[in-house]
């Protein structure tokens, strides 16, 4: 039986692809420098930044892939550089502040004198020369009490001991603030002022041993011109050289004040240098008689009848109040 219904239409066959043509568009090649930038970001931040910028330039010209990789490498590279810079800054701050404080604490130089600086903090093992091997003067000559280790002005019942170094800037502050009043109290018989000139800051005078020479000059003055001792001390501080300089020469030290007797020969002979160094060793190692401290840990150190003044260096009222309240030993 013949089928009179038309046959259903056949589906069109797909056209075969053209010869040599891929059925899908080819993905663009990934830029090599973009890959290097991303990888470098985890190891060398600067390399990641450099290669990242180069990669973006090439991608704009060649239309290669990898823009996202290059940008990621750049971001990570800049973050790494910033982190490294911050770490270096922190390390420098720690080196400049924390480490010196730790070193000072280990050396026992922090705690007793809140006003001391690193340069005004002596160390107990600092020995300025071999003073113990030299013959030292004895007895009392003028205002120099060699056996007791100080220079003395006045005869008052209250004992005021001032330990200082001629090159110590904080000692200068104390002298400028309170030196005149102490001189007046010594002159009117209220106090006995005892000066202890130390030499440990020789280390900041570029090899000229300025502290030792200035201390010896003060002692020359005490023996030859005792009436001008405090005037000479004031002149030493008024002409104090900066730390890490050579300081004054001997002729300049001799010419600081007008004296009845010249101290040039005394200075030229190096007299009292060994005695000044020996006093420094004694002060740094102790024991300090009749005092509430055993040794000197910083300058200036001021004792009133053995009690340590720990107030401000530039407040004369505070110091006079301390002096008055401790005048009865």
TrEMBL record:
<dbReference type="InterPro" id="IPR012336">
    <property type="entry name" value="Thioredoxin-like_fold"/>
</dbReference>
<keyword id="KW-0812">Transmembrane</keyword>
<feature type="transmembrane region" description="Helical">
    <location>
        <begin position="33"/>
        <end position="56"/>
    </location>
</feature>
<protein>
    <submittedName>
        <fullName>DUF4190 domain-containing protein</fullName>
    </submittedName>
</protein>
<keyword id="KW-1133">Transmembrane helix</keyword>
<dbReference type="Pfam" id="PF13462">
    <property type="entry name" value="Thioredoxin_4"/>
</dbReference>
<dbReference type="InterPro" id="IPR036249">
    <property type="entry name" value="Thioredoxin-like_sf"/>
</dbReference>
<feature type="transmembrane region" description="Helical">
    <location>
        <begin position="68"/>
        <end position="94"/>
    </location>
</feature>
<feature type="region of interest" description="Disordered">
    <location>
        <begin position="111"/>
        <end position="134"/>
    </location>
</feature>
<dbReference type="InterPro" id="IPR025241">
    <property type="entry name" value="DUF4190"/>
</dbReference>
<keyword id="KW-0472">Membrane</keyword>
<dbReference type="Pfam" id="PF13828">
    <property type="entry name" value="DUF4190"/>
</dbReference>
<feature type="domain" description="Thioredoxin">
    <location>
        <begin position="92"/>
        <end position="328"/>
    </location>
</feature>
<dbReference type="InterPro" id="IPR013766">
    <property type="entry name" value="Thioredoxin_domain"/>
</dbReference>
<feature type="compositionally biased region" description="Pro residues">
    <location>
        <begin position="1"/>
        <end position="17"/>
    </location>
</feature>
<feature type="region of interest" description="Disordered">
    <location>
        <begin position="1"/>
        <end position="22"/>
    </location>
</feature>
């Amino acid at each position: 039986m013949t089928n009179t219904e038309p046959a259903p239409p056949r589906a069109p066959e797909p056209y075969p692809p053209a010869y040599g043509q891929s059925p899908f568009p080819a993905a663009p090649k990934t830029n090599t420098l973009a890959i290097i930038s991303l990888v470098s970001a985890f190891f060398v931040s600067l390399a990641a930044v450099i290669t990242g910028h180069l990669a973006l330039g090439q991608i704009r010209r060649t239309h290669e892939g990898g823009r996202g990789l290059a940008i990621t490498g750049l971001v990570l590279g800049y973050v790494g550089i910033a982190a490294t810079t911050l770490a270096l800054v922190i390390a420098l701050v720690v080196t400049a502040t924390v480490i010196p404080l730790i070193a000072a604490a280990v050396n026992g130089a922090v705690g007793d004198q809140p006003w001391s600086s690193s340069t005004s903090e002596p160390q107990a093992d600092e020995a300025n020369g071999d003073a113990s091997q030299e013959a030292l003067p004895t007895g009392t000559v003028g205002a120099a009490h060699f056996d007791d280790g100080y220079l003395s002005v006045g005869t008052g019942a209250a004992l005021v001991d001032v330990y200082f170094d001629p090159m110590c800037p904080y000692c200068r502050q104390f002298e400028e603030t309170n030196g005149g009043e102490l001189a007046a109290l010594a002159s009117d018989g209220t106090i006995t002022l005892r000066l202890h000139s130390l030499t440990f800051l020789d280390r900041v005078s570029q090899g000229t041993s300025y502290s030792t020479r200035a201390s010896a000059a003060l002692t020359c003055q005490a023996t030859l011109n005792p009436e001008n001792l405090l005037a000479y001390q004031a002149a030493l501080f008024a002409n104090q050289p900066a730390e890490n300089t050579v300081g004054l020469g001997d002729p300049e030290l001799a010419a600081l004040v007008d004296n009845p007797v010249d101290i040039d020969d005394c200075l030229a002979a190096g007299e009292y240098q060994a005695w000044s160094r020996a006093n420094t060793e004694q002060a740094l190692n102790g024991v300090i008689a009749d005092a509430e401290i055993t040794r000197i840990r910083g300058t200036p150190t001021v004792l009133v009848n053995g009690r340590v003044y720990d107030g401000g260096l530039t407040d004369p009222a505070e110091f006079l109040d301390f002096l008055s309240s401790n005048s009865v030993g």
